[in-house]
Amino acid sequence: MKILVCICPVPDTTTKIAFSDNNTTLNTQGVTFILNPYDEWYSLVRALELKEAGTATAVHLITVGKADSEAVIRKALALGGDEAIRIDTDSNDPWVIASQIAAYAQSEGYSMVLCGKESIDYNNGTVGAMLAELLDMNYLGFVSKIDVAGNTVTVNREIDGGDETDACDMPLVISCQKGVAEARIPNMRGIMAARTKPLKVVAPAAINALSSIVAYEMPPAKTGVKMISADNMDELVQLLHAEAKVI
């Protein structure tokens, strides 16, 4: 059983965000990119666990990005991926990303495709479902536990008021969230091995984007906090009526 893990580079969470080109582009000058945590901590690590248990035979990584994303790819290889594929294009349109991955994966015979539930930059959470449709595979989203027995995959999903257990035959696409696996840190042996692991660069398919960025906008600055004395209930009630906002 071969597993394909979708990964993507995202700005580090400590990044100070700035925009350029009339607020249509993220200014990446000085920005450190990291492996998307939902891809790294959950989907990739669970795929590696399945390989270590003898359930999977190979774990491949795939990303849609230009050459500057290869440092992030090598980190994923250092964690234990067997080989990586980089589709040589860049896009913030989830349809393009899903379509590029599907164009490569459809002839590679993957039994399972794993991805994080979302990327922490755009938070769309849509690539997994689109990918499943394009590959004509079943889809299980926002999964917190994955077990495999033969050709059947059993998962747990958090729902309002409880948990849901689903079973589905492979091949399938799964998006993962907290609970699927515990985060790992690459060791020195893995880091050294990652330098020589295969990283294949693939030409992109001709796919038109369905969306574009009109403009980015920073959220309004936070206002100061008003401290009210515990014995001044009348002032608190007045401020709640006059200034508090319901979100």
What series of H and E elements makes up the topology? Answer: EEEEEHEHEHEHEEEEHEH
Share in β-strands: 25-35%
Across the major sheet, the strand order is 11-10-9-12-8-1-6-7-13
Radius of gyration based on Cα positions: 21 Å
Termini gap: 47 Å
Oligomer: single chain
What is the 3D form?
A: globular
For the biggest sheet, the summary is: 9 strands, mixed
Overall pLDDT confidence: 93
Question: How many helices does DSSP assign?
Answer: 6
- CATH topology name: Rossmann fold
Tally the structural domains.
1
Low-confidence stretches: none
Amount of helix:
25-40%
SSE-based structural type: alpha/beta
Looking at CATH, the homologous superfamily is HUPs
The CATH architecture classification is: 3-Layer(aba) Sandwich
Question: Tell me, what is the CATH class?
Answer: Alpha Beta
Total beta-strand segments: 13
Structure characterization notes:
The chain is of the alpha/beta class. The chain has one domain (2-221): 3-Layer(aba) Sandwich (Rossmann fold), CATH 3.40.50.620. It has helices at 37-52, 70-79, 94-105, 127-135, 188-194, 233-242, and strands at 2-6, 9-11, 19-20, 25-26, 33-35, 58-64, 83-87, 112-116, 138-149, 152-159, 162-169, 172-176, 199-202. A hairpin with a 4-residue loop joins strand 3 and strand 4. Helix 2 crosses helix 5 (188-194) and helix 3 (94-105) packs parallel to helix 4 (127-135). The protein is globular. The model has no long low-confidence stretch (mean pLDDT 93).
